Amino acid sequence: MTIQDQLLATLPDADVLPLTPRIGAEIRNIRLSGDLPDSLVDQIKARIALHKVVFFRGQHDLDDAGQEAFARRLGALVPHPTQKIRDASEAILELDSDHGGRADQWHTDVTFVPDYPRYSVLRGVTIPAVGGDTVWANTATAFNDLPAPLQQLAESLRAVHSNAYDYAAQRPRATEVDRKHYEEVFRSTVFETEHPLVHVHPETGEKNILLGSFVQRIKGLDRFESAKLYEVFQNHVTSPENTVRWRWQEGDVAIWDNRATQHRAVNDYGDARRVVRRVTIAGTAPVGADGSTSKAIR
């Protein structure tokens, strides 16, 4: 009997398997749908806040409509600002490795707009026999790991994020299909946003490092200085002990707090096809440690 059939108000610890001490947990014995009890949805949100990313195996009954119906229980859906959503859907973005869908750089989803998504809900549709894992990193523990002088410096900085970046430099292994998709679709409209480098999570109160591959520069610094500081802080985010790696199976669902994580898809599966479908939940503009908010530049 599944948890929702029992209408339990909480998730038993036996059904939540932490995957690392810092990030990630698998939740078992739940069939995701738009009809889950409110109490169970609240517990899933609480587990996301605690573990940053949670995973559900074997959600084979979940189609596009079911994925959106469940995602609406987490908040208002928001489509990608530049990429086309799937037909007959409200906000589903398909990431197909045969059509430029290899998100193989560390990033937080859509940080080139001020109110970037709160949650992302990703479903495995076609998974390679070998490879194609995704890795997530905890940006709150990354901040906590910084020495005090670096914490103070990070809190004083702001960074400019954009979907227009040096694609060739960041993705030297990209195929011609990938490059065409980037030029014609992903950056069809250019966005730039200035974010605090450290923001305070509105629910947990934790301080999180806000970086990733959409960062173009740190405000007030030249490109060389920006790159050096970016490397220092980003290395803390992506250190191995701060990450969790998920080996996908078809029908799996991952849900992560986009305000407290970065992630990347591992591009190690050659010509095999990998298809995942993502729905994002509307967020709010981050607030820095000094109370300043993000702002759109263009």
Summary tags:
single chain; 298 residues; alpha+beta; Double-stranded beta-helix; eight-stranded mixed beta sheet; four-stranded antiparallel beta sheet; 17 strands; globular; disordered N terminus
Overall geometry comes to globular
CATH architecture: 4-Layer Sandwich
- The total of beta strands comes to 17
* Count of all domains: 1
Helical residues, percent: 10-25%
- Model regions low in confidence, pLDDT < 50 over at least 5 residues: 1-9
Question: How do the SSEs run, as a string of H and E?
Answer: HEEHEHEEEEHHEHHEEEEHEEEEE
Q: What is the name of the CATH superfamily?
A: Clavaminate synthase-like
CATH classification class: Alpha Beta
State the end-to-end CA separation. Answer: 51 Å
CATH topology, by name, is Double-stranded beta-helix
Integer average pLDDT: 91
Gyration radius from CA atoms, angstroms = 19 Å
Commentary on this structure:
The protein has 298 residues and is α+β, with helices and mostly antiparallel strands. The protein has one domain: Clavaminate synthase-like (Double-stranded beta-helix), CATH 3.60.130. The chain has helices at residues 3-6, 38-51, 64-72, 139-145, 148-155, 167-170, 176-186, 223-237; strands spanning 16-18, 25-27, 53-56, 77-78, 93-96, 119-126, 134-138, 158-162, 192-196, 198-200, 207-209, 215-218, 243-246, 253-257, 261-265, 275-281, 295-296.
